[in-house]
Design goal:
Blueprint: H1 2-10, H2 14-34, H3 38-55, H4 67-78, H5 81-85, H6 88-94
Helix pairs in contact: 2-3, 3-4
């Protein structure tokens, strides 16, 4: 099923998927480096890492080592990483009250 989705959907429409992938990876990197929306960026990054981990689980003898990539991202998502040394506090001041909650802003 997974191979069929990749072969028949993603590869046939590579341009929109490539743009979405690049944009998402830029968001993850910028949010983690600047500390703006850091929890959301960490969760999206953990989702990307988990996706790669589980998509290669059956053919990768070292798949159990992939936790090194997604465990720190989950920790960053739950420990308010951008609140003290990042831009999360400044971003939270500009957002409406209903958006000032986890995972958007910690």
């Amino acid at each position: 099923l997974y191979k069929d989705v990749i072969d028949n959907l993603v590869l046939d429409h590579y341009t929109p998927f490539g743009i979405a992938l690049t944009t998402t990876e830029l968001f993850i990197g910028l949010s983690l480096v600047t500390g703006a929306f850091s929890s959301l960026g960490a969760l999206v990054g953990a989702g990307f890492a988990l996706h790669i981990n589980f998509s290669t689980w059956d053919r990768n003898p070292w798949a159990w080592e992939a936790a090194v990539e997604w465990m720190p991202l989950i920790a960053l998502a739950f420990f308010a990483a951008g609140r003290h040394y990042g831009l999360d506090q400044a971003v939270a001041a500009r957002l409406p009250q209903r958006l000032r909650r986890w995972p958007i802003i910690t």
